[in-house]
Recover the amino acids of this structure.
């Protein structure tokens, strides 16, 4: 058995949740925050049999899109600022970031 931890953009999450339901994939959906952009994203915890890992990776891949996002770097009030340092910078986000972990035991009590 494996545990997939998949971080996807909020905009892709509803479609992916529906895919999981349609294909009888059990998942837990968490509202999370990216450490860099400090904006919301969605993390799924998905416990599943080894044989279904590739199928679910393909679902995540299909549902997740790459997007350009702007972030404003934090302003350091102690530093001497040049005129460009507070301007937004463009960052590419996604598709999805996925970890595949082995599961020692699985219990439902
Ligand atoms: P964030 O941490 O908000 O990162 C959003 C995007 O900003 C990243 O997209 C990446 O393109 C860029 N980025 C992140 N850290 C950066 C840095 N130190 N310098 C320059 N650019 C940086 P993705 O790579 O697609 O990641 C999307 C989200 O997936 C991340 O949101 C984070 O929540 C999660 N993530 C990505 N890699 C991870 C990892 N190794 N461990 C845990 N979570 C991860």
């Amino acid at each position: 058995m494996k545990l997939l931890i998949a971080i996807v953009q909020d905009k892709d999450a509803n479609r992916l949740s529906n895919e999981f339901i349609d294909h009888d994939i059990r998942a837990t959906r968490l509202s999370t925050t990216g450490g860099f952009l400090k904006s919301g994203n969605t993390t799924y915890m998905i416990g599943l049999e080894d044989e279904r890992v590739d199928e679910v990776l393909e679902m995540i891949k299909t549902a997740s899109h790459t997007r350009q996002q702007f972030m404003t770097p934090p302003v350091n009030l102690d530093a001497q600022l040049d005129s460009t340092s507070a301007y937004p910078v463009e960052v590419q986000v996604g598709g999805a970031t996925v970890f595949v972990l082995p599961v020692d035991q699985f219990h439902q009590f």
Notes: The CA atoms of residues 31 and 42 lie 5 Å apart.
